[in-house]
Write a structure and sequence with these properties.
Keywords: Ribonucleoprotein, Ribosomal protein
CATH topology of the largest domain: OB fold (Dihydrolipoamide Acetyltransferase, E2P)
CATH superfamily of the largest domain: Nucleic acid-binding proteins
Structural class: alpha+beta
Strand content: 25-35%
Pfam families: S1
Protein name: S1 RNA-binding domain-containing protein
GO molecular function, one term: mRNA binding
Family: Belongs to the bacterial ribosomal protein bS1 family.
Shape: rod-shaped
Radius of gyration: 37 Å
Length: 307
Amino acid sequence: MSEIQNSSIFSLDEISDEEMNSLIDGTVTDFDEGDLVNGTVVKIERDEVLVDIGYKSEGVIPARELSIRKDVNPAEVISLGEDVEALVLQKEDKEGRLVLSKKRAEYERAWKAVEDKFNAGETVEGEVIEVVKGGLILDIGLRGFLPASLVDLRRVKDLGAFMGTRIEARVIEMDRNRNNVVLSRRIVLEEARKAERQDILGKLQVGMKLKGTVSSIVEFGAFVDLGGIDGLVHISELSWNHVNHPSEVVKVGQEVEVQVLDVDLNRERISLGLKQTSEDPWRVLVSKYPVDAIIEGTVTKLVTFGA
């Protein structure tokens, strides 16, 4: 064996720990805080998940850094052998491991996706994961806040009823410095209602008879819901007889048949008539009692100008 060959043969026992670490460091990629890394889940524990990222030691993802949802069980959100992307939070903990965050890596990508939808005026969809003071928290890849006043068209008494449901909403505010995303479901509902109103208005014709439900009663008449849009039955169009107040003829929630009297497309107003769905008693009277006919009747009231 030549002298050169002999010089290339050595024992691991002859290498110091410092030299060994130097050799390892020379073959392993270095990472900095804020870097995105990819790895494979090699161990799942109650409080953390270990990930092989090809570093000198395994990376650790604390349970709180797995998901934007609170108090998650690691085994429910990640699987052994799963490939994951994570963000480097800390180069070394007390055990010399890289501290990683799966949720923050997902957050970075989700923020860009949500921001694109925000700029394009598109909607986002997510599951309601929390009911908090003043509104709901949606999982849209990041935590989106939906204020209680923007959950529905009308005030919602029980926000808890939305827990676990999927909601489509519009992003109305984004603040990266505060990691704040504000959503509105009401805008989406209003736009849908407007489209529905336009569709209904376009199909209505004077003289049509429709069925609807009395939605509210006011001094001058009653509003009838025609299935997405309300029309007004003026007090004078409620009955062929004199009416002192609309409540004498209809009540809220009552199903009624009405006739379309007028449609104003520009103002989106519909005038309806209830009495037109029944026969005009005066016309019946005229046909039954022609002019010059002699009839018998009972005096019901005396006034200064007649009886």
